[in-house]
Amino acid sequence: MSDPKTRRRASRVRSDSFDPESYTIEVVWTTGATVRTFDPWTGEEFDEALSLDDGAVNLDRLNAGAAFIDTHDSSECSRVVGSVVRGSARIEGGKGLCLVQLSRARDVADIVLKIREGVIRNVSVGYWVHRYETVEQDGATPLKIATEWEPLEISAVPVPADAGSQIRSARGRRTGARPRPPETDMERGARAAARILGKPVPKREPSASERALAALRRHPGRAREPDPRRVAEREAADRKAGAKAARRLLWRGHMPGR
């Protein structure tokens, strides 16, 4: 059974920061976004924001190697998918960031594969709030700002709420071209046969994605930056959908995601 003191925030993620050599991903585990939640003791509903000001977040547990687990299930060690790389957790540019070392164990291989494929796109941070500042909003739902809080663990989860949190893009921390897809058995056989017969070795045909990337490199002006207004509208819609999903979980007797 989960500790009623522990709160959670789920967020949408991307998996293309996966590094196959170090077996790590880079995670944005919070943006501090305001999310509709409730007090598990009193049932009071309120808007909660997580302050990212200097001194507001205690990162000791994350930087000591906190667990990266499956859906906040800390009942068994087999639910551990990885761990936060020691010393990598930080607040930067209004976001909470860290590097996560994924496990190569067989019992979590399916979850790790889904993260690498981008099928699992959400993370959630479990945290304790030690101090709130309450802001009344003219008869509306009160806003509580967590001015002293402590992340405990990070989980892979299905339901997003904080649309800004994500597994970061590889473009954010590595340079260089994306590796080519591996050669297929048919291509490998055709090349071997050509060498045996003394014929010209057929060149490998680029994939559709490789051709598209090549076109963008030839015509960089065609690659448009995303419209900030549309991005903001999409994130607002995601937050609204996440809050609705969290309320459904509450009605079923579950803790809401964050």
From TrEMBL:
Region: Disordered, residue numbers: 163-258
BP GO annotations: proteolysis
Superkingdom of origin organism: Bacteria
Keyword Protein transport on entry: no
UniProt keywords, alphabetically: Hydrolase, Protease, Viral release from host cell
Biased composition range(s): Basic and acidic residues: 180-190, 222-241
Biased composition (Basic residues): 245-258
Protein name: Prohead serine protease domain-containing protein
